[in-house]
Amino acid sequence: MSSSSNGRYAAHHGRIGLEIRVLEPLVLNDVDPLPTRNTARSTNHQMALRGAWQLQKLIVSFSDWGGSSRGIRSFMESYLPVFKEKNPQLEVVTELIRGQHPHLKGLYKNKSERVVCVKNMDPEEVLQCATRLRNSLGRKVVKLKTRHVTKHPSVQGTWTTDVKF
Predict the structure, then answer these.
(1) What is the pTM assigned to this prediction?
(2) Does some domain include residue 115?
């Protein structure tokens, strides 16, 4: 087993190679607090349709008295200013509602809206819900009828492990 000075360790056994990387802990002040996905197809992690953001307005509804709004109130103090700064295309409005559970409401360009209940959630979970609303296109979720969707279906039939000669 060999080691290098930059924190990477590599072990080689025959033709099979294994590389283990040691990661340093993240500091929240230096990093973007918005969660992103790492996909192989694209490096752009935000969702837009034809270059235009679909979420127009985000309404943050909370109660200043209720205990279920504790997480969203701390989200508004710590994460919401950064979220507004990172998303200038988005209109973010806060709404005081007493006697109801907190929720996030997203209004989209196609005149649809999505409401996500965020009662008793941590500020990080509320940020994740707001980011999901921002990244979604506002369309209805359509259930696929088949598991495999392709433009070129197999002529030979379905593959099985029971090969009969």
Answers:
(1) 0.61
(2) yes
Q: What DSSP state is assigned to residue 147?
A: S
Asked whether residue 32 is assigned to any structural domain, the reply reads: no
Q: How far is CA 79 from the centre of its chain?
A: 15
For residue 72, give both structure tokens: 């969203």
**Count of domains observed in the chain:** 1
- DSSP lists the bridge partners of residue 57 as 91, 107
- Digit-by-digit pLDDT tens for the chain (165 residues) are 444 444 444 444 444 554 555 555 444 444 444 544 444 444 445 667 888 999 999 999 999 999 999 999 999 999 999 999 999 999 999 999 999 999 999 999 999 999 999 999 999 999 999 999 999 998 888 887 777 777 777 667 677 788 676
Q: At 128, is the secondary structure helix, strand, or coil?
A: helix
Task: Residue 45: name the closest of 86, 76, 81 by CA.
Answer: 86
- CATH label of the domain that carries residue 123: 3.40.30.10
Alpha-carbon span 58 to 90, nearest angstrom: 7
- CA distances for 55 relative to 47, 60, 103, 116, 134, angstroms: 10, 14, 16, 14, 6
